[in-house]
Amino acid sequence: MRGVPRRPVFDTLKERGFVSQCSNEEGLRKLLDTEQVTFYIGFDPTAESLHIGHLQQLMFMAHLQRAGHRPIALVGGGTTRIGDPTGRTESRKIMPVEAIAANAGLFRKQISRFLDFSEGKALMLDNAEWLGPLNYIEFLRDIGVHFSVNRMLSFETYKMRLETGLSFIEFNYQILQSYDYLVLFRRHGCRLQMGGDDQWGNIVAGMDLIRRVEGVEAFALTSPLITRSDGKKMGKSEGGALFLAPHLVSPYEFYQFWVNVPDADVRQFFLRFTFLTAEEVTALCSAKDEKINDAKRRLAHEITALVHGVDAAKEAADASRAAFEAGEPGDLSGVPSREMPRSEMEKGMGVVDLFVRSGLCATKSDARRLITQGGAYVGRKNVTDIETKISSEAAENGVILLRAGKKRYFRIILSPGNEKAERD
Asked: How far apart are CA 295 and CA 47, in angstroms?
């Protein structure tokens, strides 16, 4: 509506919990309010999927893009060959170039779900394009000369690693990331690099390089690492990292993760991981006691729809209701599953082995502990004896439904095989 001033995007970012450290808040505010700003975040393809930490950065970028600014999603096909020492107590394993390239391709597909790349609204680049052909001697002379070893060692990343050992190849990482920023400034006018708080030292180094080489002010902006209200690091599912790829964490498991977050965290996750307005979030989070579960289901649906699509979110929600609501089970097709030959289950399998095989328990020790503490269910029956054998007779409609605790389900689907003939 004309006459109504647009809210500064920096205020929106702050309100939603994205802002932690900024190199020059007043200067960046002015730049964002008066110009279309090109900004970037880097994603090193060290795994075959992005995870929840990346999701926060993608939402960070998406909000800025919606305010009219231009994001660059930089896939680190070059920097991954070195390995970022940030937050690690030992060196990363050197990855094969082929694996890095394959992961980079998967990252690009996932990133495209969150940013609009039509009509020049965003760029997706790979730093292997300019890092791969570098001449080492020229690079040291032209770029390395601007870095002080003493200053580099003052950053927390390197100070931590000096105690356990820092390889020379890792020591180069900050210089390469800084060079990325310089290249993006020169080629695309990029003046803002963003990332998590653990990247502050690397981002500031790149900002300083642009000032030294080009005489222009660039900016650094970081977001806080994701923590729960109790201070614990957030982002792990029962099986490990909360990946965005459905073959690593199914849409059902992803949905259930958000349904089960602590009550005190619902508001911050709505603000960080959805596009609902602050007013909508306030209304949803005003619910108390059991009603807060409705807000959690809305949270789970919104985030799952963003990551996996509306259809997958609906299927996960339907499966969740079917698994947890009283009465006869409904459509459980969204619950994680695996097939087993019916003939294998006819003789019976130990309940410990069955829970390990399903993935509900990582080890036999975990399974024994779950069972003896009363947290293991087969169908609607609580199993407390670790010597129990489960056979195909436990199946309903060809499915053995396992449950670990109150929240985690798994389906064993019995495939046709040497089924016993019914006898008189």
From this structure: 32
Listing DSSP states for 276-311 in one string gives --HHHHHHHHT--GGGHHHHHHHHHHHHHHHHH-HH
pLDDT tens string 175-196: 999 999 999 999 999 999 999 9
Distance CA 246, CA 264 (A): 27
Rounded to 5°, the CA angle 105-109-111 comes to 110
- Going by their DSSP bridges, the two strands 219-223 and 192-196 should be labelled as parallel
Q: Yes or no: say if 74 and 126 are a contact pair by the CB < 8 Å rule.
A: yes
C-alpha Rg value of the chain to the nearest Å: 25
Tokens of 173: 């990482």
DSSP state, 415? E
pLDDT, tens only, 67-119? 999 999 999 999 998 876 665 555 567 788 899 999 999 999 999 999 999 98
- Between β-strands 236-237 and 240-241, what pairing exists: parallel, antiparallel or unpaired? antiparallel
* Contact (CB, 8 A) for 361 and 404: yes
Nearest to 234 by CA among 252, 195, 260: 260
Q: Which residues pair with 221 in a beta bridge?
A: 22, 194
CATH T-level topology, domain 236-324: Tyrosyl-Transfer RNA Synthetase (1.10.240)
pLDDT in tens, 219-250: 999 999 888 776 666 655 445 678 999 988 88
Beta strands in 44-95 (DSSP E): 70-75
CATH code of the domain occupying 9-223: 3.40.50.620
What pLDDT does 82 receive? 82
CA 104, CA 98: separation in Å to the nearest integer?
10
Which helix (H) or strand (E) segment is 392 a member of?
Answer: none
Q: In the chain, where are the structural domains located?
A: 9-223, 236-324, 337-415
Q: Which contiguous run of DSSP H or E holds residue 399?
A: strand 399-404
Q: For the domain bounded by 337-415, which CATH number is listed?
A: 3.10.290.10
Can you give the pTM of this predicted structure?
0.77
Dihedrals phi, psi of 191, to nearest 5 degrees = -125, 5
Cβ neighbours for 59, distance < 8 A, ≥ 6 positions apart: 18, 114, 272, 273
